[in-house]
UniProtKB/TrEMBL annotation:
Keyword field: Oxidoreductase
Residue ranges constituting the Flavodoxin-like domain according to the UniProt record: 6-191
Organism: Pseudonocardia xinjiangensis
Keyword Isomerase tagged: no
PROSITE patterns: FLAVODOXIN_LIKE (PS50902)
Broad class of enzyme this protein falls into: oxidoreductase
EC number: 1.6.5.2
Matches recorded under InterPro entries: Flavodoxin/NO_synth (IPR008254), Flavoprotein-like_sf (IPR029039), Flavoprotein_WrbA-like (IPR010089), FMN_Rdtase-like_dom (IPR005025)
Highest taxon of source: Bacteria
Name of the protein in its database record: NAD(P)H:quinone oxidoreductase
Record-stated family: Belongs to the WrbA family.
GO molecular function, one term: NAD(P)H dehydrogenase (quinone) activity
Length: 205
């Protein structure tokens, strides 16, 4: 599967989504894909970040992670998006990046890419499913092929979210555990496998 190219594009404030993005990256690489791990540009003012110890610490720890660009979207066969929820919707930071993809959409360069997403909320019932479904609305417009994890692996019966891997951070105090990380790893592996099959099928058509 080493001809499959994966972009893991995320926004994370205090590190939970970042940990899941790293797990997705490692799983995709293990599946044989070439992977780019990219964060989106931060929109919050420096004083807001500095006012939250966890936010500031995570920003400093990940300062060397490259920022996502449109070239990453165009390059990838698989798009894996990660975001915390904001009132049941994707974060403004990730949404701003998505909104910048209009030129690629207009040229049809996002059609038939495999797309999937994962999320984290501060509380239980904090909008996990609605956030993932909102991201799917973008994928429909792009003509992408949505690959959700479903219950296609035993880990999903423990994780419990067929829309995409998800995590409850308890207001940023609890990092993703083994179940959440295994769930997002399965999700990434499945996306790579589907993309490989699609590329083979399109090539033979």
């Amino acid at each position: 599967m080493n001809d499959v190219q994966v972009a893991v594009i995320y926004y994370s404030a205090t590190g939970g989504v970042y940990a899941m993005a790293e797990a997705a990256t490692k799983a995709a690489e293990t599946a044989g894909a070439q992977v780019r791990l990219r964060k989106v540009h931060e929109l919050a003012p420096a004083e807001a970040i500095a006012s939250n110890e966890g936010w500031g610490a995570h920003a400093a720890a990940t300062q060397n992670v490259l920022e996502a660009g449109l070239d990453d979207l165009e390059w990838a066969d698989v798009l894996i998006f990660g975001t915390p929820t904001r009132f049941g919707l994707p974060s403004a930071q990730l949404k701003q990046f998505i909104d910048s993809a209009g030129p690629l959409w207009a040229e049809g360069k996002l059609i038939n890419k495999v797309a999937t997403s994962f999320t984290s909320t501060a509380t239980s019932h904090g909008g996990q499913e609605s956030t993932l479904l909102a991201l799917n609305n973008t994928f429909y417009h792009w003509g992408a092929i949505i690959v959700a994890p479903g219950y296609a692996d035993a880990i999903q019966f423990a994780a419990g979210n067929p829309y995409g891997a998800s995590h409850i951070s308890n207001n940023g105090t609890v990092p993703p555990g083994d179940t959440e990380l295994a769930s997002v790893a399965f999700q990434a592996t499945r996306a790579v496998g589907v993309a490989a099959a699609l590329k083979k099928g399109f090539a033979a058509a």
